[in-house]
Amino acid sequence: MPPRKGDAQYDGSRFDAEGEHHLAALFDAYSIVYTAQSITEGKKKPDFLFPSAEKYHDISFPTEKLCTLAAKTTCKDRWRQVLNEANRLRSKPKYLCTLQQGISSAQMDEMQEECVVLVVPKPYIKTFPRTKQNRIWTIHKFVSYIKELQS
Fold first, then answer.
1. Whole-number Å distance between alpha carbons of 60 and 51
2. How far apart are CA 122 and CA 130, in angstroms?
3. For the chain, what is the total number of helices (H) and then of strands (E)?
4. Reduced to 3 states, what is the DSSP secondary structure of residue 70?
5. Catalytic choice (10, 30, 34, 56)
6. Could you report the average pLDDT of every consecutive run of 10 residues in the chain (151 residues)?
7. What secondary structure does DSSP assign to 95-144, as a single string?
8. Residues forming beta bridges with residue 35, ordered by sequence position
9. Active-site residue, 56 included
């Protein structure tokens, strides 16, 4: 039996990989162009780069048409990893898809200060502080945003 969350040998990366696979299948279903696990600079590797690593590295390609998405099962302090995954996008929002529910108001405020936008399944939004729910994007909203960027 494979390790599960809560087991001593569970490190979270397996579940993150499964979540990435589901997101990739969703992006494929909507004909979204992306590169998964591509290197931006040095050893930096966002989970998803839209529209592609090739466009990211093409300096003539408009930065406004680029986007990254990190996929993390839980945020805790790991959300900070997304802040520096793509130098060209430093001044743009950073999108973080998570399955963690009920992140604290204080942590959500920290994320907002760093321009991190949470992306969660729609039913999860109700588990977040009511006054912060309008900051959270559904997966559907994120997909619509990317489709608009790519049109």
1. 14
2. 14
3. 4, 6
4. strand
5. 56
6. 39 59 94 95 93 97 96 83 91 92 91 94 93 95 97 92
7. EEEE------HHHHHHHHHTTEEEEE-GGGGGGS-GGGGGGPEEHHHHHH
8. 49
9. yes
